[in-house]
């Protein structure tokens, strides 16, 4: 009798633990700034969240820069919930090109309230599920011409506090839970200009942009670890470690994956281009194109950096170098996420891998 009770108890506890442990999220950024989104190409069953990029910032408020196409996109994206009822649709505000007005928009209590109200009004009006902030970057230049100031460090936190208040107010009216997330620079300098340990209390997920790392030299742009011979190189592991040390729980951190490659032309004639000086910019392309048309084709040879857990291509004749994520690097990133008990993965941007090679691998490993 005791053995039966013991087995029954173990079964109940196991079922409870499985139910209590959330599955890793898979967040896809979808670019609506180009115009109408063809949602027929989006596999909603393989996503947990879509972050709609981007909403602009104007006159201290969140602003639909392309209102006609944005509103149509909101409607068609919401229809994807017929295929996946658990799918969440968020607006992502800012991005590289539309972050110039963030600093002014959150400079005072009055401005922050107006900004938060405008953002939440958008999701209320179009029946969306939350707000994602992609400020590139508080306290730092970002794109040329961006406004930034030392006060951004504290105001960044206060912005999230005000947004959380407005979302909670809306929740009381509708009975629906709303999400607040942010995309952050996947490098330690971002932490010097923010208070992520404080800001995280208002956030559901913190999306690490662990890509676009290589500048000036032909290095990995979305590597999990640093290369064997280049310890100063940025990496996803360094970003995760730094954000956790700053007080962000692993359970809120989301690992970034690049659905695109970054290309360059190197100055050297060396057979291995890593960390060689860049002579000129080059094209990379989306992963579907890279996989189908460039890997060991058109003069390109595929390489794998065992230490960095990252692939790259090199055309020795034309000195062309491309860094990117592939199924193998995504597998390692997803395993890392599970080992560190992180929230999940996110990627930029859906249309760069229309054949779904990388999204399929994410689902295979995580879900």
Compact summary:
Helices cover 35% and strands 24% of the residues. It is α/β, with parallel strands linked by helices and 367 residues long.
Features:
367 residues, alpha/beta, 11 helices, 35% helix
Work out the oligomeric state of the chains in this entry.
single chain
Mean pLDDT: 94
Tally the beta strands.
14
Helix segment tally:
11
Provide the low-confidence segments as ranges: none
Provide the structure class. alpha/beta
Work out the helicity level: 25-40%
Largest sheet, in brief, is: 8 strands, parallel, barrel
Strand content bin:
15-25%
Secondary-structure element sequence? HEEEHEHHEHEHHEHEEEHEEEHEH
Shape: globular
Plain-language structure description:
- Strand 7, helix 8 and strand 8 form a beta-alpha-beta unit.
- It contains eleven helices and 14 strands.
- The protein is an alpha/beta fold and 367 residues long.
- Helix 4 packs across helix 5 and helix 10 runs parallel beside helix 11.
- 46% of the residues are buried.
- The strands form two sheets. An eight-stranded parallel beta barrel has the order 1-2-4-5-6-7-8-14, surrounded by six helices.
- The chain starts with a helix and ends with a helix.
Question: SSE layout and pairings?
Answer:
Layout: H1 2-20, E1 25-31, E2 49-58, E3 61-63, H2 67-79, E4 88-94, H3 102-105, H4 109-125, E5 130-134, H5 152-174, E6 179-185, H6 188-192, H7 196-199, E7 205-209, H8 236-245, E8 253-258, E9 260-266, E10 278-286, H9 287-294, E11 300-305, E12 310-315, E13 320-323, H10 327-340, E14 344-348, H11 357-366
Parallel strand pairs: 1-2, 1-14, 2-4, 4-5, 5-6, 6-7, 7-8, 8-14
Antiparallel strand pairs: 2-3, 9-10, 9-13, 11-12, 12-13
């Amino acid at each position: 009798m005791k053995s039966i009770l013991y087995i029954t108890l173990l079964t109940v506890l196991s079922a409870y633990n499985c139910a209590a442990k959330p599955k890793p999220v898979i967040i896809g950024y979808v670019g609506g700034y180009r115009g109408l989104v063809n949602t027929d190409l989006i596999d909603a069953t393989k996503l947990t969240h879509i972050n709609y990029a981007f909403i602009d910032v104007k006159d201290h408020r969140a602003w639909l820069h392309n209102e006609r196409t944005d509103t149509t996109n909101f409607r068609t994206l919401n229809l994807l919930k017929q295929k996946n009822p658990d799918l969440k649709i968020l607006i992502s505000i800012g991005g590289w090109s539309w972050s110039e007005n963030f600093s002014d928009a959150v400079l005072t209590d009055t401005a922050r309230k107006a900004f938060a109200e405008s953002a939440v009004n958008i999701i209320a009006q179009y029946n969306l599920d939350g707000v994602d902030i992609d400020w590139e970057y508080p306290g730092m230049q970002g794109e040329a011409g961006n406004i930034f100031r030392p006060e951004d460090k504290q105001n960044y936190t206060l912005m999230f506090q005000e947004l959380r208040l407005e979302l909670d107010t809306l929740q009381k009216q509708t009975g629906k839970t709303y999400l607040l997330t942010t995309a952050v620079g996947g490098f330690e300098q971002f932490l010097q200009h923010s208070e992520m340990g404080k800001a995280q209390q208002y956030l559901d997920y913190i999306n690490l942009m662990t890509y676009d790392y290589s500048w000036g030299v032909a290095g990995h742009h979305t590597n999990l670890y640093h290369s064997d011979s280049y310890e100063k190189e940025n990496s996803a592991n360094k970003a995760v470690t730094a954000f956790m040390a700053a007080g962000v729980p692993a359970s809120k951190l989301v690992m970034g994956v690049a659905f695109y490659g970054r290309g360059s032309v190197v100055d050297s004639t060396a057979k291995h281009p890593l960390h060689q000086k860049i002579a000129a910019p080059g094209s990379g392309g989306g992963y579907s194109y890279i996989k189908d048309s460039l890997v060991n084709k058109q003069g390109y040879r595929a390489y794998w950096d065992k230490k960095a857990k990252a692939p790259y291509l090199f055309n020795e004749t034309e000195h062309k170098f491309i860094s990117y994520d592939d199924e193998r690097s995504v597998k390692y990133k997803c395993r890392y996420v599970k080992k560190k008990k992180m929230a999940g993965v996110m990627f930029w941007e859906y249309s760069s891998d229309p054949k779904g090679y990388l999204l399929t691998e994410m689902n295979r490993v995580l879900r």
